[in-house]
Amino acid sequence: MRPPFKYSDDNKRYHGYSYYLKHRFGKKVYKVPLNVGLGCPNRDGSKGTGGCSFCSGALSGNFAGDPKQSILTQFEAVREVMEKKWQGGLCIPYFQAGSNTHTDIKTLESMLDTALSLPNAVGMSIATRADCLDSEKCKLLGEYAKKTYLVCELGLQTVHDSTARAINRCHTYDDFLKGYEMLRQNGVNVCVHIINGLPNETHEMMLQTARKIAGLDIHMVKLHLLHIIKNTPLAEQYLRGEFAAMEMNDYISTICDQIELLPEDFIIGRLTGDGDKRELLAPMWSTNKRAVLNGIDMELARRGSVQGCKR
């Protein structure tokens, strides 16, 4: 039976990351999360203090390595586990925790050189904030993008500055655009992260975020659910009843609406996130990731929709 979507080998109706990697590299490719302990300008006073209200103490790197260990040690520890599942698989080192361009140019170059030399590595991903980029760093990233499959992942979360202020983002949509434009001018692939379910955002506001990024020249998008993590400012707001967590059906509907708005060649790197069950306060339905992903597949099939059909 022919797949329902051009960028799919199965029943998926969107351009999945696993599909892209398989067709680009010819075999299984998995990411190896790393933590080099570079912190965040929204915690150290460079841009603000306290961090974004949703962010855990691990700086969104709960599943990354121990920053006290070297990049190679962290990489080998994860790779050993992954090899048991995908023997001979290829790897993408992923600088995940914190803002990984929030450093000097020599340290950044050393990180990139190390990632480039790791065994079975066919690329690298670097998570950061757009306001931690400048022309010198983007030029350096552009040089490495000529050597390997490099993706710079920018946490946007929302295009609405009112929401960004409410969650103590200390970062505007214009900040994002400046960083994005410098990366693209240097030939760097850009992945954009957005979060659905941020406090007091309406369904239409979430779709507006999708519409705006749909008009950009990006490589990949990651769609996340807002996880309310214990011992964060967001958790305190939630417990005071200042906002409600998204319901599963609402989340699935929103994701499908956004998929319909995104260009068909955009790679979708995620359709929901992985919350640490030990720290997750709500929504608890998100721990059943398979049910969420199956629900998205079923809703797209029910609609007869595919990615980009409402562009």
Write the layout of secondary structure elements.
Elements: H1 17-25, E1 29-34, H2 71-85, E2 90-95, H3 105-117, E3 123-128, H4 135-145, E4 149-157, H5 161-166, H6 173-185, E5 189-196, H7 203-214, E6 220-225, E7 228-229, H8 233-239, H9 248-261, E8 267-270, E9 280-282, H10 289-303
Parallel strand pairs: 1-2, 2-3, 3-4, 4-5, 5-6, 6-8
Antiparallel strand pairs: 7-9
Helix pairs in contact: 3-4, 7-9, 9-10
Structure summarized in a few sentences:
By secondary structure, the protein is an alpha/beta fold. It has ten helices and nine strands.
Name its key features.
two-stranded antiparallel ribbon, 311 residues, alpha/beta, 10 helices, seven-stranded parallel sheet
What would your notes on this structure say?
The longest helix has 15 residues, at 71-85. Helix 3 runs parallel beside helix 4, helix 7 (203-214) packs parallel to helix 9 (248-261) and helix 9 (248-261) packs across helix 10. The protein has helices spanning 17-25, 71-85, 105-117, 135-145, 161-166, 173-185, 203-214, 233-239, 248-261, 289-303, and strands spanning 29-34, 90-95, 123-128, 149-157, 189-196, 220-225, 228-229, 267-270, 280-282. It is an alpha/beta fold and 311 residues long. The protein is 37% helix and 16% strand. Strands 1-2-3-4-5-6-8 form a seven-stranded parallel β-sheet, sandwiched between helices. A two-stranded antiparallel ribbon has the order 7-9. Strand 2 (90-95), helix 3 (105-117) and strand 3 form a beta-alpha-beta unit.
